[in-house]
């Protein structure tokens, strides 16, 4: 070990010889073995002097210093100052070191920023170096210190120079850097907005490059969030410099509305302008009364949005569009209409739409007016439906159907399809429009028109929904239509936009159980649909979701009460009938086929779509499908392997209330039996807890409560961080309430969950609180007849009494405690018996001599003796060893005379 005096003396010699490191080594060794406090203080002072000497040498070698070494020196001096807090030399050194580190940090950031710009603007620099520099600049801008240095060092003009190069990679780097600088900083965001200019930002977003348009959209969103209160920091005096942002926000809004209808804007830019309006104009919280932004947008931009809906891409002189533009516009129209608060506001919306339709008709572009109505029918349906009923509109549709131009026929057929979305209107078209659609279907040679006409027939044929008794067409007709749809769907020669309509047709036809059964047996057709769902054309998502809802029967089903059915029959009312192939066995088989064809990976891609396309209704449908797919525990591994666990998280956090509940339920099913590291990799696992906790509320059904408890149990058994997260989400009161539940499965699931949570400090503190019956409940649950419940309750008690000795004494306040404990120790189940004996050991080891004496004076000694003397057995070895350990502990406490005690086997 070494003599501390000798080590101290050796240290002194090394110090005098100038070998500081050797001196520190000797002093450190002496400190470890020195028992004398006075000498220890001397050795500590000597080592402190070494540290100070080392730091002084460090400053002498000024040219060789680096930031990392300064940090180390700062820590060394901190140690010295901790030992001698009144030493002025140490304190002064700390001050100087801190200032130098700060100066070097600032200088380093400044030089790095300038270096990045030099590389990016150097024409002769290689592409790889420029890409690295661009990424470094973006990363720097995401940190507040880096963003501020870029801003202060004339960074915005330099970024504008990058944009001016016209090179996509330079523009992207500049825009993303600006986004980082504007995030969460109101003053800087406003300054950058004024320096760059709204027009300039719009011109960047208008570029025909999807990535650049998306980056510019994100920049606008960052600015908007910072100016509207997303920045929660206190600025003090600086706050006075931040002017009112309302004028800037209004300028941005007007500029975005101008972009919507401008021919100079690319399709991608138009999509992003519509997305920004959709995200930021309608109220996010309906309780807020102010919907002035919506009213302003309707007055200044509704006609512009309608113009986008009315574009016919096949005609010349149209606005540049993507596959998704018109649907995004329809979704925006729907959000604006839903945000209106009273009848006069809704009447004004309808009047503007009617005025615009009349204007377009006057301009003799009937196909555009009908296309506008189609856009409204896909958005605010009531508005579109009202316009269809106006005089001359139906006649215009019929005239376009009979036109010799293919484009007119396409527009008309699509309008007919969208306008027959309600049962009553479908019935009208069955009487008046079926023959027209059939005629177009038979006569046209244009596949694109033919498929649309077929979809119209499919929609009309499915007007009865899944009611087997309300078939609109003759037996076998829907199957023939579906077969043709599948044929088009599987034909790669047909363009994506046209094949999309085949799925639209199947979305209607799969209301028929014969059709959905045939469809899921056609693996090629399924895979073709899934591939289309992954394509850039996201307008297909709703149709795919509808088809999957039908195939899995995951729509809401009304409960049929037999007495009411009989009453309906007696009064000659219509009674819905279930198709024979819509029974449970058929649904299970369809689910298996869908999983085999790769439905989960398709759903995972669909969930990532932009919110403007992936509406809340579509999200709800996807959540329902996921829940249906995860019904069978044996299928959940497949869902996890294809990314289903990750995909469910956003569905559980955003969307309709019903959709979030369905997604949370599916998450609970997966979380209950899966390894969390695999099912929800990385930090995502922490996002799973809130949806599961939401299912514990009393307004959820028993099955959802049970699955949530099982999911939380699995997560709680995985790591301390997850247990802490469960506690922070306020799950404990709900879990405890289900431990009192009369339902056996719920009570057991809640107790198992608590068993996995009791290692958490906060949970233990709840049991230690005075005046509560939590521990008493656990003791009583140990006395129940259900073995699963006993196992969980006894496990929780064993862990609690091991870590909190006070609970051993508190346990005895339950009248039946000794009887219940004896029953546990005599239990035929080895697991329960082992846990009971562990509780006994914890009580013997609790430092409560009276409690230990009471246990040994009871029949417990005889029970432990019998168990301890038993022959070793692999099945019960844990219990045997625990009993023998208890007896040894009793001997150590002097409660048993070793000479009078019978010899025992094993570890006696």
UniProtKB/TrEMBL annotation:
A Gene Ontology molecular function term of the record: Hsp90 protein binding
Key words, A-Z: Chaperone, Cytoplasm, Developmental protein, Differentiation, Myogenesis, Repeat, TPR repeat
GO biological process: cell differentiation; muscle organ development
Database matches in Pfam families: UNC45-central
Spans of repeat TPR: 4-37
The organism's place on the tree of life at top rank: Eukaryota
Keyword Repeat: yes
Ranges for domain UNC-45/Cro1/She4 central: 275-460
Annotated localization: Cytoplasm, Perinuclear region
Cellular component terms (Gene Ontology): perinuclear region of cytoplasm
Protein name, per record: Unc-45 myosin chaperone B
Organism of origin: Takifugu rubripes
Gene assigned in the entry: unc45b
């Amino acid at each position: 070990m070494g003599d501390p005096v000798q080590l101290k003396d050796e240290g002194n010699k090394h110090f005098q010889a100038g070998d500081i490191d050797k001196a520190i080594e000797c002093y450190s060794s002496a400190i470890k073995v020195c028992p004398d406090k006075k000498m220890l203080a001397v050795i500590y002072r000597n080592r402190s002097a070494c540290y100070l000497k080392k730091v002084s040498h460090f400053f002498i070698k000024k040219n060789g210093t680096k930031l990392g070494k300064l940090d180390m020196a700062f820590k060394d001096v901190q140690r010295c100052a901790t030992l001698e807090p009144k030493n002025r030399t140490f304190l002064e050194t700390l001050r100087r070191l801190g200032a130098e580190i700060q100066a070097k940090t600032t200088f380093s950031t400044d030089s790095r920023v300038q270096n990045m710009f030099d590389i990016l603007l150097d024409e002769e620099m290689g592409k790889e170096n420029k890409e690295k520099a661009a990424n470094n600049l973006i990363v720097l801008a995401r940190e507040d210190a880096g963003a501020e240095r870029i801003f202060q060092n004339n960074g915005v003009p330099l970024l504008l120079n990058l944009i001016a190069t016209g090179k996509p990679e330079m523009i992207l780097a500049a825009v993303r850097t600006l986004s980082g600088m504007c995030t969460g900083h109101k003053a800087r965001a406003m300054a950058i907005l004024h320096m760059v200019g709204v027009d300039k930002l719009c011109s960047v977003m208008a570029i025909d490059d999807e990535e650049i348009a998306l980056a510019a959209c994100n920049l606008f969103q960052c600015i908007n969030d910072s100016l509207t209160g997303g920045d929660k920091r206190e600025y003090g005096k600086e706050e006075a410099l931040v002017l009112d942002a309302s004028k800037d926000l209004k300028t941005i809004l007007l500029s975005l509305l101008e972009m919507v209808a401008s021919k100079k804007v690319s399709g991608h830019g138009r999509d992003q302008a519509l997305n920004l309006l959709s995200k930021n104009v309608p109220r996010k919280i309906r309780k807020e009364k102010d919907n002035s932004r919506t009213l302003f947008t309707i007055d200044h931009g509704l006609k512009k949005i309608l113009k986008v809906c009315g574009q016919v891409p096949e005609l010349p002189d149209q606005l540049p569009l993507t596959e998704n533009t018109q649907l995004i516009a329809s979704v925006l129209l729907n959000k604006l209409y839903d945000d209106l608060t009273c009848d006069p506001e809704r009447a004004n919306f309808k009047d503007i739409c009617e005025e615009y339709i009349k204007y377009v008709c006057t301009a003799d572009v009937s196909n555009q007016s009908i296309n506008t109505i189609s856009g409204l029918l896909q958005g605010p349906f009531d508005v579109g439906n009202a316009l269809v009923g106006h005089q001359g509109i139906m006649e215009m549709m019929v005239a376009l159907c009979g036109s010799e131009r293919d484009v007119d026929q396409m527009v008309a057929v699509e309008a007919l399809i969208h306008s027959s979305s309600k049962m009553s209107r479908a019935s009208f078209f069955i009487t008046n429009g079926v023959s027209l659609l059939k005629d177009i279907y038979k006569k046209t040679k244009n596949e694109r028109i033919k498929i649309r006409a077929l979809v119209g027939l499919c929609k009309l044929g499915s007007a009865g929904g899944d009611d087997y008794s309300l078939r609109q067409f003759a037996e076998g007709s829907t199957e023939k239509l579906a077969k043709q749809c599948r044929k088009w769907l599987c034909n790669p020669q047909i363009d994506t936009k046209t094949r999309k309509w085949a799925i639209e047709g199947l979305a209607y036809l799969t209301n028929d159980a014969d059709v959905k059964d045939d469809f899921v047996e056609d693996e090629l057709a399924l895979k073709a649909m899934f591939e289309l769902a992954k394509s850039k054309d996201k307008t297909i998502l709703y149709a795919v979701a509808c088809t999957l809802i039908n195939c899995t029967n995951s729509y809401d089903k009304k409960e049929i009460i037999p007495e009411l059915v009989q009453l309906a029959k007696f009064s000659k009312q219509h009674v819905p009938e279930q198709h024979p192939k819509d029974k449970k066995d058929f649904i299970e088989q369809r689910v298996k086929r869908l999983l085999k064809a790769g439905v989960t990976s398709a759903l995972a891609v669909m969930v990532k779509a932009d919110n403007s396309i992936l509406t809340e209704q579509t999200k709800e449908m996807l959540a329902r499908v996921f829940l249906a797919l995860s019904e069978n525990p044996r299928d959940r591994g497949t869902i996890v392997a294809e990314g289903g666990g990750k995909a469910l998280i956003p569905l559980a956090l955003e969307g309709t209330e019903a959709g979030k509940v369905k997604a949370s339920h599916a998450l609970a099913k997966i979380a209950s039996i899966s390894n969390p590291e695999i099912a929800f990799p990385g930090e995502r696992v922490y996002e799973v807890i809130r949806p599961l906790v939401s299912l514990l509320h009393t307004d959820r059904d028993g099955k959802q409560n049970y699955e949530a408890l099982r999911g939380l149990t699995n997560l709680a058994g995985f790591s301390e961080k997850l247990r802490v997260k469960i506690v922070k989400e306020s799950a404990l009161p709900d879990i405890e309430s289900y431990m009192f539940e009369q339902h056996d499965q719920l009570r057991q699931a809640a107790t198992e969950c608590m068993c996995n949570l009791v290692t958490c400090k906060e949970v233990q503190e709840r049991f230690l609180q005075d005046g509560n019956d939590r521990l008493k409940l656990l003791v009583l649950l140990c006395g129940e007849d259900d073995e699963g419940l006993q196992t969980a309750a006894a496990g929780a008690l064993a862990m609690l009494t091991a870590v909190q000795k006070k609970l051993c004494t508190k346990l005895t306040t339950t009248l039946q405690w000794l009887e219940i404990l004896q029953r546990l120790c005599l239990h035929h189940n080895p697991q329960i018996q082992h846990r009971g004996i562990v509780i006994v050991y914890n009580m013997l080891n609790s430092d409560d001599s009276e409690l230990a004496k009471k246990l040994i004076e009871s029949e417990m000694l005889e029970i432990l003796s019998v168990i301890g003397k038993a022959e070793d057995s692999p099945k019960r070895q844990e219990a045997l060893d625990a009993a023998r350990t208890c007896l040894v502990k009793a001997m150590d406490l002097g409660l048993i005379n070793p000479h009078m005690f019978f010899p025992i086997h094993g570890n006696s």
